[in-house]
Amino acid sequence: EIVLTQSPGTLSLSPGERATLSCRASQSVSSSSLAWYQQKPGQVPRLLIYGASSRATGIPDRFSGSGSGTDFTLTISRLEPEDFAVYYCQQYSSSPRTFGQGTKVEIK
Amino acid sequence: EVQLVDSGGGLVQPGGSLRLSCAASGFTFSNYWMSWVRQAPGKGLEWVANIKQDGSESYCVDSVKGRFTLSRDNAKNSLYLQMNSLRAEDTAVYYCTSGGSYFGYWGQGTLVTVSS
Question: Fewer beta carbons within 10 angstroms: which end of chain B, N or C?
Fold first, then answer.
């Protein structure tokens, strides 16, 4: 099983700032088979990024994904008020599909 | 508009059974792998199981093997999760999702509570 470790656990930032979230895999994730999701309190998770760097339909271009192998990054270039949420990475290189534990982006 | 409507959750005693359902609309259901993802109260996301387009293959996480069975009815655009021998640690919101790899569309979730 591929274990995904996200860091930091909590990121305290102000609107307009840049957010950099990390996801590290316990073994190589083949073909960049990594996705990112956003979840706001009381809401359903939303797919942001798949294939490590491809934005899902309707996702603003301030969200970008990068990385390969075992190290992946989600970057939010300028935080908007609606971006404060929990973010999860997820690998689909192998079964079982696994998620990271999440990074909470909170308002500083 | 894509819609996934989850139902069937509730309160069940340890060792009991529940059958979750997911009604899909707005896309060609039979063309997609489908999955269930769960989230325990206040916790993160956990993939539970997925099933191939024609139902010929399905996979699940080790913790539910032998207890949960995934099925689908493409004529009814529906996905099912039969959960037997339920344990307290199965308590979670269960989400029906599209896709077997990453999860593009999500249902609203149905809460399963296993408690005596």
Answer: N
Binary contact (B102, A95; C-beta < 8 A): no
Residue B104 is nearest to which of A39, A47, A101, comparing CB atoms? Answer: A47
pLDDT tens for A16-53 read 999 999 999 999 998 889 999 999 999 999 999 999 99
What are the 10-residue block averages of pLDDT along chain B, 116 residues in total? 97 98 97 98 97 96 97 97 98 97 97 97
Our CA-based measurement puts residue A99 at a distance from the nearest CA of chain B, in whole angstroms, of: 6
CA–CA separation, B82 vs B106, rounded Å? 19
Rounded distance between C-alpha atoms, residue A45 and residue A99, angstroms: 12
